[in-house]
Amino acid sequence: MTPADLSRTVLHAVRRAVDEDALRAPVPARVRVERSRPGGSGDYACAVALQLARPAGLPALEIARILRERVAAEPGVGRVEITGPGFLSFTLDAPAVGDRAVLGAVREQGLGYGHGGALGGEIHQLHHAREVRAAVTAQAVFRLLVAQGARGRTTCEQAPDPDWARLGVTVDAYGTPPTPLAEIRPVPAGATAGELLERLGPDAARWGLLRAAGHDRAALGPELLVQGEANPLFRVRYAHARARALTRGATALGFTADAAPYGESPAPYDEAARPLTDLIADHPGVLLAAARHRAPDRVARQLEAVAHAFFDFHDSCPSLPAGDEKPSAAHRARLALAEAAGTVLAGGLSLLGIRAPEHL
């Protein structure tokens, strides 16, 4: 069960409680499920009972008890606990099956993993100033919205800078809009597109413009071109290239990835794999949140986290046999996770309009 699956399960429990007249409150459009914080209980936590307490006219603890019995009966949910003033904490059943399902979804959906139809039917008109960071941000937000099923267009206050095209930016129309639109106004870059392209090139320029939150100033210095671990963009792209190199190495040794044995007990690589599998499982939720909040910086930070977890996993659990060692089920499973990480990195970079080279 993925976080998105669990969110739908909790929402279904709320709807059932309302239909059965056990709870009298409006059913929310969505339910937010998050990873339990360090020291917390279970795998995931949810505050929906606190959210419903006021409209339902009931204590949050009572609502949590109503929902607990309905969620606990669902397949894939091992245990549901109530903590604090009414938080629901979930421990999932058979996590290895969930991991295999996540890796299978990445393999099946490819670069489209995390895309969906949650925003289907919505129409967004993004309007921005004639400024390079606003233009790049609006275009990235548009990509994120479309990836979640929305439709729309981007417009600019004035005729676009011709150099924007070299950054992959297009504008559907320009001028004063006849009706109020969704304005994209990050802190200006302080440089033109031409200047950034000359100093950084398109990929580093886009990363620098999108990595910081819109209310923060973008870092657009020469550090974006450093070929080393201190540069997050290099680290993300290198993690992708390394994952692809592992696939080529496995092919040369005559074996392929296989997630089937992943998580079997005993499994000497499970502990090191957990942060990476969790991030991959959470990726669809991150993309949806980035689209809803018009925040491509969330995608950039997610990719950095995936790259960091990938290298930790890769260093602890080699995907390729060494010396005369024969490929084992563990190697095939590790390769499946490494390939999934590479796919997530490539897909996320694509949404930001940045290339993911196979070789660095």
TrEMBL record:
Q: Which GO terms describe its cellular component?
A: cytoplasm
Q: Which UniProt keywords apply?
A: ATP-binding, Ligase, Nucleotide-binding
Pfam families, per this entry? Arg_tRNA_synt_N (PF03485), DALR_1 (PF05746)
Positions of the Arginyl tRNA synthetase N-terminal domain: 4-92
One GO BP on record is: arginyl-tRNA aminoacylation
GO MF, one term, reads:
ATP binding
Superkingdom, natural source: Bacteria
Reaction it catalyzes: tRNA(Arg) + L-arginine + ATP = L-arginyl-tRNA(Arg) + AMP + diphosphate
E.C. number: 6.1.1.19
Domain DALR anticodon binding as annotated: residue spans: 236-360
Q: Which PANTHER family match?
A: ARGININE--TRNA LIGASE, CYTOPLASMIC, ARGINYL-TRNA SYNTHETASE
Question: What protein does this entry describe?
Answer: arginine--tRNA ligase
User: Which species does the entry assign this protein to?
Assistant: Streptomyces griseus subsp. griseus (strain JCM 4626 / CBS 651.72 / NBRC 13350 / KCC S-0626 / ISP 5235)
